[in-house]
């Protein structure tokens, strides 16, 4: 624990609010939606009590929230908002605008099922719905990592080599309302960590009496160039995030990995690939199976966009069997969305079995028994036994 840090038991939502306030945003857009509402409530409380020096805009909807902070960001301000599910869908056009304008905004998204079947419950379908929007997407495992990732998100978004919006995702209901011990750094420590941004070339700021243009219509050849540069910036974000996590560890004495976290994978024959809060349960079962002599490990995806292809190939190459657990679906495809992306790496990974497991939709808990069944299937597959490529956990049902 750092000398000036303090320990406090807080919910995941409060951890997000604390992180945002520690980064000294200039503008915050506030609009409630379950299970994100507590984030905005806490920030409003800090603002009312004089603990947060920021412009707090109470907007009439999520679309206005994203447009507000995008405009403030392009004018040179540091910004923040938070949303979930339907709110993320409602701001979709504004999300694309923020991305296309290369606005370095930071947002927390509290994962929840999206419109279709109405479900006020956990699921990563909202994150999946915007994966091709050009944003950087990070996924937290626990309350401490929510706080840490949001602080790192500002270093990543505002870096002069990146200049892209960053979304920090965490599981609604499981992490949003879960109270855990969180180490909260002193604001001076956060100031020091973010101070490197001030040494970089500064973005233009909106100043009274001076014009500032952002965005344009009718670009023809220039449009291709802008897309090319955007895609290159996303690729640069991978190594930049690795660098930032190392500097974060040096500053705050905490390390959760870079683009991925590897848990007992070095000698593993079989590996589970997963993300989010389910990974705590997976690690517990892995520890038990290790005591039984089963060589199994976990690769946890921390950076979902850009997709950590190189890191996954390195971590998964040569494993006998690999199971990918998705907390979302890929309509029109066989298998979960993250599984499908891992499958594109199959030739480089060279595994004998790559299996999709779809689990945890709409607040269905991912239990120890579920993970044990998944591991049993992977063991069978690694020994050459027949296996199903796509499995719905805990049950399968004909439509």
What are the key terms here?
2 domains, 399 residues, 7-stranded mixed sheet, Rossmann fold, alpha/beta, 19% strand
Question: How do you describe this structure in short?
Answer:
The protein is α/β, with parallel strands linked by helices and 399 residues long. The chain has helices at 12-22, 37-48, 62-74, 86-90, 92-100, 125-129, 143-157, 187-194, 221-252, 278-291, 309-316, 337-343, 346-349, 368-382; strands spanning 6-11, 27-30, 55-58, 79-83, 106-111, 136-139, 166-171, 179-184, 260-263, 270-274, 296-301, 303-305, 321-326, 353-358, 390-392.
Describe the structure.
- The protein has 399 residues and is an alpha/beta fold.
- Helix content is 40%, strand content 19%.
- The protein contains 14 helices and 15 strands.
- It has helices at 12-22, 37-48, 62-74, 86-90, 92-100, 125-129, 143-157, 187-194, 221-252, 278-291, 309-316, 337-343, 346-349, 368-382, and strands at residues 6-11, 27-30, 55-58, 79-83, 106-111, 136-139, 166-171, 179-184, 260-263, 270-274, 296-301, 303-305, 321-326, 353-358, 390-392.
- The termini are far apart.
- The model has no long low-confidence stretch (mean pLDDT 94).
Task: Work out the helicity level.
Answer: 25-40%
SSE pattern = EHEHEHEHHEHEHEEHHEEHEEHEHHEHE
Low-pLDDT segments, ≥5 res:
none
Morphology call = globular
Count of β-strands: 15
Mean pLDDT: 94
Q: Largest beta sheet: what is the strand line-up?
A: 3-2-4-5-7-6-12
Secondary-structure content class:
alpha/beta
How is the CATH topology of the largest domain named? Rossmann fold
Sheet of most strands: 7 strands, mixed
CATH C-level category of the largest domain: Alpha Beta
Give the CATH architecture of the largest domain.
Answer: 3-Layer(aba) Sandwich
- In terms of DSSP E residues, the strand content is 15-25%
The CATH H-level homologous superfamily of the largest domain: Thiamin diphosphate (ThDP)-binding fold, Pyr/PP domains
Distance between the termini: 52 Å
Q: Count of DSSP helices?
A: 14
């Amino acid at each position: 624990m750092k000398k000036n840090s303090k320990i406090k038991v807080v919910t995941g939502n409060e951890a997000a609010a604390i992180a945002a306030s520690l980064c000294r945003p200039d503008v915050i857009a506030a609009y409630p939606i379950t299970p994100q509402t507590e984030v905005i409530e806490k920030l409003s409380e800090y603002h009312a009590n004089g603990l947060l020096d920021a412009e707090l805009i109470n907007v009439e909807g999520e679309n206005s929230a994203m447009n507000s902070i995008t405009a403030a960001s392009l004018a040179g301000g540091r910004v923040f908002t938070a949303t979930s599910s339907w709110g993320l869908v409602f701001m979709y056009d504004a999300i694309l605008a923020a991305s296309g304008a290369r606005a370095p905004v930071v947002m927390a998204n509290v994962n929840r099922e999206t419109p279709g079947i109405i479900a006020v419950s956990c699921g990563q379908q909202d994150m999946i719905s915007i994966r091709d929007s050009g944003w950087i997407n990070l996924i937290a495992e626990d309350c401490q990592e929510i706080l840490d990732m949001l602080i790192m998100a500002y270093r990543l978004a505002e870096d002069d080599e990146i200049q892209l919006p960053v979304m920090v995702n965490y599981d609604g209901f499981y992490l949003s309302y879960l109270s855990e011990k969180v180490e909260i750094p002193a604001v001076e420590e956060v100031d020091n960590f973010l101070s490197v941004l001030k040494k970089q070339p500064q973005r233009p700021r909106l100043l009274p009496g001076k014009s500032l243009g952002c965005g344009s219509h009718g670009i023809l050849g220039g449009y291709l160039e802008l897309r090319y540069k955007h895609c290159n910036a996303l690729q640069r974000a991978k190594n930049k995030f690795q660098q930032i996590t190392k500097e974060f560890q040096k500053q705050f004495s905490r390390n959760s990995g870079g683009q991925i976290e590897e848990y007992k994978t070095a000698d593993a024959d079989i590996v589970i690939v997963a993300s989010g809060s389910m990974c705590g349960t997976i690690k517990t079962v892995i520890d038990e199976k290790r005591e039984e002599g089963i060589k199994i490990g976990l690769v946890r995806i921390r950076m979902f966009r850009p997709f950590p292809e190189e890191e996954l190939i390195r971590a998964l190459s040569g494993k006998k069997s690999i199971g990918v657990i998705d907390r979302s679906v890929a309509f029109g495809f066989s298998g979960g969305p993250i599984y499908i992306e891992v499958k594109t790496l199959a030739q480089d990974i060279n595994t004998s079995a790559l299996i999709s497991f779809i689990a945890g939709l709409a607040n269905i808990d991912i239990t120890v028994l579920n993970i044990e069944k998944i591991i049993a299937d992977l063991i069978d597959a690694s020994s050459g036994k027949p296996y199903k490529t796509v499995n719905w956990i805990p049950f399968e049902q004909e439509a």
